[in-house]
Amino acid sequence: MAYIVSKEAKEANYMKFRQELIQIVEKSGAHPAWGIKHCFRVYHLAKELSSHLMLDDEVLFAAAMLHDTGKYPIYAIKNVDHALRSKGVAANLLQQMMFSPDKIPLILDAVENHMYYSEPGRSDEAVYLRESDILDNLGNIGLMRLFSCVGQDELIQTPEQAVERARLFADALPDKVSTKSGKRLAIKRREETLRFLAGIKRQTAEFAWI
Question: Residue span of the signal peptide, if any (predicted)?
Answer without folding.
Answer: none
